[in-house]
User: Fold N-(5'-phosphoribosyl)anthranilate isomerase from Bosea rubneri.
Amino acid sequence: MTRAQASFPIKICGLSTPETLEAALAAGADMIGLVFHPKSPRFVMPDLASRLAAQARGKAEIVALTVDIEPAKAAELAQLLQPDWLQLHGSETPDAVRAIKAATGLPALKALGIATAADLQRIEPYAGSADMILLDAKPPKDAAYPGGHGRPFDWALLAGLDPAFRFMLSGGLDPANVAEAIRTARPSGVDVSSGVESAPGVKDVDRIAEFVRAARAAAQALNDDMLKKAGKA
Ligand SMILES: O=C(O)c1ccccc1NCC(=O)[C@H](O)[C@H](O)COP(=O)(O)O
Assistant:
């Protein structure tokens, strides 16, 4: 079990400079995401990605974000970057997730876009393949890339999920709304990109620190509440 699977992971995605990565590490982020989708404003070239990964290694889990990557390419990326996780943010089927995992030996964080209650039925087929599910907003119809658009979805849709199901929540989270999102959706972790930026692809060190602080406090309050309800506090 990785650190992220054992705790309430807070992930800062789309980091692309040593300074903003340092801010995420100093704030106590558990996971940092590097985006390998060329159409993204957060895309990092392999050389820079390797340097950022070296900076983060041992301090936070490194997540390589890909979109519909072929297993052989994923194996090359895994060899180059030695990440702790692959985030699969395209339309990868459960079989594709299995093939990518077999080629890389890495755990998979599979992103699923949620807009309506019917979308929740897409979770179950990944039970035997993805190591963690990330429930995200769907991208705008004409989007050039499939994530990181800063759009929230209706968190109340998740209230009926089995409390034992561990998932990460993302989509339009920011320092001001993350506490409410955690109270409503009761996720096992959170992920942010746009909400800690001043412009697409430009991370803001103060917003990163505020986000981690707010998410950590809300996760602690959620945990206290669950212990209280279970009669353990
Ligand atoms: O961030 C991107 O540019 C990106 C490109 C292609 C696929 C996914 C991408 N981002 C995903 C994320 O950053 C997060 O996992 C998540 O969707 C949160 O994004 P945001 O709503 O911007 O906080």
In short: Strands lie at 10-12, 31-35, 61-66, 85-88, 108-114, 132-137, 167-169, 189-192, 197-199, 202-203.
